[in-house]
Design a protein that fits this description.
The structure is a homodimer of 363-residue chains. Chain A is of the alpha+beta class and 363 residues long. Chain A is built from nine helices and 23 strands. At the A-B interface, strand 3, helix 1, strand 15, strand 16 and helix 8 of A face strand 3, helix 1, strand 15, strand 16 and helix 8 of B. Chains A, B: Keywords: Dioxygenase, Iron, Metal-binding, Oxidoreductase.
């Protein structure tokens, strides 16, 4: 690697076979592995870097030698650290978009017992959930709280006004359509919560009624298609804040967000779709016109008849883990003339899932 | 109110003394209180409205009579419902921005016993937390978990990798600067978590060391000033996604977001500021130049020396509730030559706080 200092005091690094990268002096000053700046144990920064003069300059730099700054700070510039630093960090990991033709043999899947025995198996499963947005756990006990044996490998479940683990089965006087045998259109869960639940664990106890297949849509794939084929519709959904609301005697939950949310870099980071609880404000009528057209265009991509819809049947003892920021899920209707359908579900925060996955990732 | 139907089949409502409002046919179709469309108990929508034709028209409308649509749907158009519908919904409630001169007599505050006795007192306190971003609970038991008596009035606390209620006091070999007697610069808590903790409950057990005052800054106020005085800096902070990271032996937490986050309507909805855990990616150097300049400008507004900083001293038996999406908090340094400083803290999700506040709001 060749080092030069630019006119502005920035560090230019030229590595053979790749474009030169210019590093900002403050970025270097903040990130170099110096024990006086970054706590060696937790990586926490020990000085208020907003107080670093913004006209800071690199004054001298030698590979595996000393790098010096105009404020008098100097530290080691390790070549292995610098090699990693000039690699661009990927924005979205290794996500794989899929559609309704995804082969069940390619579903990320693992046995609960194997994950308990070997954390590396759990790590690979969580990687699969990251790339595909879902995964199937097999060999989950058929107890009411059997799903907690898997959740416990990751972290505490999210508690909501409905408690921890909740039934998904047809009951009389259901407070939610989930608790009827009705088909469920593709949706993301509870966008009216703040925060929106991160991951859904759906644990199958019985499933031999007539109907009741699971349906999944890769919302990031649908959003990418909309962005390509109908950029105006995409833009309308990204820039319209929608209110979602749930209100009964004991809970009054409300949150806001676009159907397709992008981060500041323009990457899609969250899908919200919950027709049942979408209560858009009375926006100016021209904005609503664009919104409703765009929503209809997105709906075509995620509707049960869309080629993006994956349909399959959960078996007793299986648990479906779904990324609720990426997937739309639903089910076909069922009748209870014969058999029964009993699922249990709970939520995990993104926190614990991401932390476990990163800790188990091969170095 | 005068009703007319426009060329596009939209409903124009003219009320005396205010501008006419045009209502979109789909908005009306989705929101009118018809038991076949909206579940009377939970308000959940019972039909997939993305399938409503986007060229839907209102064909006839009579106040307190029938409104009819081009798809054959017809329902009652109640005048009281329509009156509420044409009022614009406020974007940000009744927030009051404040600075370092805020009179302690005006702090939202309430006694724990009074809130237990009378939900209306709790409701007014939560309203105060919504308008000011913080509030002080008095008369909290001096037990280690005394804060849970207040939290329990709202909902279950958030569990993190550090458990539920955690100590804030100086200890040897602290894993976090919080656990040292060092001063703490203004920051928001744990932007590396996903979701970021919504509300912080900081319960004071003892506080008679030399120093250790609490500091608060209204981040929404600081953001509004930056937006007015330095719009380029504001824009740079809103449009730069920052990585926050915490990594030790048992947790590897990471999340991303701008220092100032706006919703699709341009309202500021969240402040992230955590110098200790901010690990911005190696963005293009020109973008980093703008970012560091902007961060320094924002820092000037929230720094301990800024007139925006409110400083006061928590007393034993008091609990400070802080909106972690709005406030920056910190403390002055302290010495343990005499006395001690022992706080306990935990988090509440925004969910439960908002739900309780809305349920207790006067109708």
């Amino acid at each position: 690697m060749d080092l030069t200092i630019t006119e502005k005091g920035q560090l230019k690094v030229a590595a053979p076979g790749s474009e030169a990268v210019v590093l900002h002096p403050i970025w270097l000053r903040e990130r170099l592995p110096d024990a006086a700046v970054l706590d060696a144990r937790t990586g926490q920064r020990l000085e208020e870097s907003a107080e670093t003069p913004t006209d800071l300059r690199v004054t001298a730099a030698e590979l595996d030698g000393t790098i010096s700054f105009s404020d008098g700070f100097a530290t080691l510039l390790p070549s292995d650290w610098l090699t990693r630093a000039i690699v661009a960090e990927p924005a979205s990991g290794n996500r794989v978009h899929w559609d309704g033709t995804l082969d069940p043999a390619l579903f990320p899947a693992a046995d609960l017992a194997a994950m308990k025995d070997d954390p590396a198996v759990l790590g690979r499963f969580l990687d699969g959930v990251e790339t595909h947005g879902f995964g199937v756990v097999r060999g989950v006990p058929l107890d009411l709280d059997g799903g907690l044996e898997f959740a416990g490998l990751i972290g505490p479940i999210r508690r909501t006004n409905w408690g921890g683990v909740a039934d998904v089965k047809a009951i009389p006087n259901a407070y939610d359509l989930t608790m009827t045998p009705r088909h469920l259109e593709p949706h993301s869960d509870n966008p009216y919560r703040e925060p929106v639940p991160g991951y859904i664990l759906l644990h199958c106890l019985t499933n031999d009624a007539d109907g009741g297949d699971s349906t999944l849509v890769d919302g990031f794939h649908a959003a990418a298609i909309l962005r390509r084929d109908d950029p105006e519709a995409f833009e309308a959904l990204v820039t319209t804040d929608v209110t979602f609301r749930y209100h009964d005697e004991t809970a009054f939950l409300e949150n806001h967000g676009p159907l397709i949310e992008c981060n500041a870099g323009g990457d899609v980071v969250q899908i919200r779709y919950s027709n049942r609880t979408e209560m858009i404000d009375r926006l100016p009528v021209e904005k609503l016109e664009r919104y409703y057209e765009a929503r209809a265009a997105f709906w075509k991509l995620i509707a049960p008849t869309s080629p993006l819809t994956l349909q399959f049947r959960l078996q007793p003892g299986e648990l479906l883990m779904m990324d609720n920021y990426r997937l739309l899920h639903g089910r076909t209707g069922y009748t209870l003339a014969v058999g029964s359908r009993h699922m249990r579900q709970c939520y995990l925060d993104r926190d614990f899932v991401g932390s476990r996955r990163r800790l188990l990732a091969p170095a």
